[in-house]
Structure to design on (587 residues):
């Protein structure tokens, strides 16, 4: 239920005595100095302060999770983390689930300091980070542009001691440590006229009353000891500002329980390193978090609180170097297949591959050694076929699927990538990699720009070194199919309508190395290939390998070219999509 929490002074006293602490699910302090100043101005103007969410933790549960103290003296370089409470108070605790940023802002403003880097100064020098404390200008005038009525600012001691005209700086922390009457009397010692003294006294009086007398704190106290229940409440209440996802909270729980490794940095660094491989990817921290669960053989791979207990997180930390190596090897393998953030439709598809590499303890030599060529091709074929399914293999029911795939890989990995076993368990879950005639017809005319087009072309034309930055290219250039160009080529209106968007579909697409693609531009294909392959016989053999029987020179004959190549590609697609499981059954 909602309860009154008293004054700001009382709140800060409870922070100081560690009656209020932070659970591991909280983020770092992220407010800038300007936000702190705006908060204090809002309090002075009587604006609503918002409700806090507190969690009463019984003494029996206090040892299950780690807790942190509030930041007081923030330093952008040296002291930006909340400090771990190695020995939290041996009593019932109140953990702050919602309100950390506001409470920390008050703590810094009234009890601490804020040091941020000055422009043009070297990061390594202490002088680049002068200590600043929060001050209130007692002669404040409203700022119409910002809407602020009271001028709060973080200043160095020197800045505060050398005010400009119209400034009388009062260090805000004094309101907690000095007698009110003495503070008011000190204004008489200032060189101010009668009106200035009146303004300064009124501002100081309001500030003192705001901190000491106004009951501005309201909180909701949750007594349910289920962390999962509390997290769900937190997410609903935290819809404003920068929203926290459930996985954000679980990540905080996970990293807070590592003992030796700076887990947050380790996870973020792995994400960055994975995304810098090849032509670039867009893997997320959520994927890496799920990879930790999967590769460490922790329960299910679902984002559930029970999977993030101390014992499991200790296992994850111990296994982290090997997990990192397996994830990097997996993304390097995908890059060698030609995948990147543009054509990898489902980031989760990397997880079974990473688990396989992890289970077999494979290293970087796996990418090139001839003895693994067949194994690599099995992985490539299985991955691509899973990505070609329009229904989406890697969508709903993902956690259940990944857990089942992990079980099969664990049992069969030492004999090679277990394609047949994986496909069997996928089929049982309604995620069959068998393709119907309708699906094959759809694949035969995939459009340019579809996330599956590159994968399909790489599957049916396996002879390319896809690590060399291949692109999906139009055989007959797009620019030749504008209405103006078709009119110029003598294509009548009826024939133009029959063209539709065929020039943008699979039968008019090929894989071409990026540098060559730039050279090709708007050349007609018969002209381009005559330059690339001057020998007629060699050219014919090369084109046959691309399922191009003839390159028509007249654009009016393009529909004939299209239908002929579509049928040839369909045969290739059918052959490529016959799974190893089906082949094994046939033999």
């Amino acid at each position: 239920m909602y309860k009154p929490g008293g004054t700001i002074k009382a709140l800060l006293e409870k922070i100081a005595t560690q009656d209020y602490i932070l659970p591991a699910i909280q983020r770092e302090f992220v407010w800038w100095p300007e936000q702190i100043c705006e908060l204090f101005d809002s309090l002075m103007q009587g604006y609503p302060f918002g409700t806090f969410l507190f969690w009463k933790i019984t003494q029996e549960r206090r040892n299950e999770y780690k807790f942190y103290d509030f930041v007081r003296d923030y330093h952008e370089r040296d002291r930006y983390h909340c400090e771990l409470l190695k020995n939290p108070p041996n009593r019932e605790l109140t953990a702050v689930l919602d309100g950390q940023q506001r409470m920390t802002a008050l703590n810094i403003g009234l009890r601490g300091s804020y040091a941020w880097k000055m422009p043009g100064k070297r990061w390594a020098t202490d002088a680049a980070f002068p200590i600043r404390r929060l001050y209130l200008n007692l002669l404040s005038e409203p700022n119409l542009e910002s809407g602020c009525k009271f001028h709060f600012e973080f200043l160095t001691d020197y800045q505060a001691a050398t005010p400009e005209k119209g400034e009388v700086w009062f260090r805000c922390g004094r309101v907690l440590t000095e007698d009110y009457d003495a503070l008011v009397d000190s204004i008489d010692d200032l060189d101010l006229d009668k009106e200035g003294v009146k303004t300064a006294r009124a501002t100081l009086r309001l500030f003192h009353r705001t901190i000491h007398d106004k009951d501005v704190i309201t909180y909701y106290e949750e007594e349910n000891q289920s962390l999962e229940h509390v997290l769900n409440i937190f997410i609903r209440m935290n819809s404003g500002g920068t929203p926290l996802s459930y996985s954000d909270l679980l990540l905080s729980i996970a990293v807070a329980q590592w003992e030796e490794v700076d887990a947050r940095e380790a996870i973020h660094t792995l994400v960055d390193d994975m995304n810098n491989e090849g032509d670039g990817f867009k893997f997320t921290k959520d994927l890496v978090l799920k990879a930790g669960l999967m590769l460490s053989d922790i329960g299910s791979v679902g984002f559930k609180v029970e999977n993030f207990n101390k014992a499991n997180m200790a296992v994850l930390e111990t296994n982290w170097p090997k997990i990192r190596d397996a994830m990097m090897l997996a993304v390097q393998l995908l890059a060698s297949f030609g995948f990147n953030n543009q054509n990898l439709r489902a980031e989760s598809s990397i997880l079974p591959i990473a688990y396989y590499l992890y289970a077999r303890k494979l290293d970087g030599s796996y990418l090139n050694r001839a003895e693994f060529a067949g194994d690599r091709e099995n992985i490539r074929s299985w991955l691509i076929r899973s990505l070609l399914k329009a229904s989406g293999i890697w969508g709903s029911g993902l956690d259940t699927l990944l857990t089942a795939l992990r079980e099969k890989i664990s049992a069969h990995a030492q004999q090679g990538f277990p394609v047949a076993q994986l496909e069997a368990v996928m089929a049982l879950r309604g995620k069959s990699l068998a393709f119907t005639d309708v699906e094959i017809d759809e694949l035969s005319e995939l459009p340019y720009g579809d996330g599956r087009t590159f994968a399909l072309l790489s599957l049916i034309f396996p002879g390319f070194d896809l690590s060399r930055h291949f692109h999906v290219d139009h055989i007959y250039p797009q620019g030749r199919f504008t209405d103006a160009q078709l009119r110029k080529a003598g294509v009548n209106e009826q024939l133009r309508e029959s063209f539709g968007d065929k020039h943008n579909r699979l039968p008019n697409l090929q894989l071409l190395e990026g540098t060559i693609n730039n050279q090709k531009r708007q050349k007609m294909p018969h002209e381009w290939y005559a330059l690339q392959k001057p020998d007629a016989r060699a050219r014919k053999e090369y084109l046959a390998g691309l399922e191009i029987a003839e390159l028509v020179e007249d654009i009016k004959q393009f529909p004939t070219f299209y239908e002929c190549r579509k049928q040839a590609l369909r045969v290739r697609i059918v052959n490529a999509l016959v799974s190893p499981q089906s082949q094994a059954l046939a033999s």
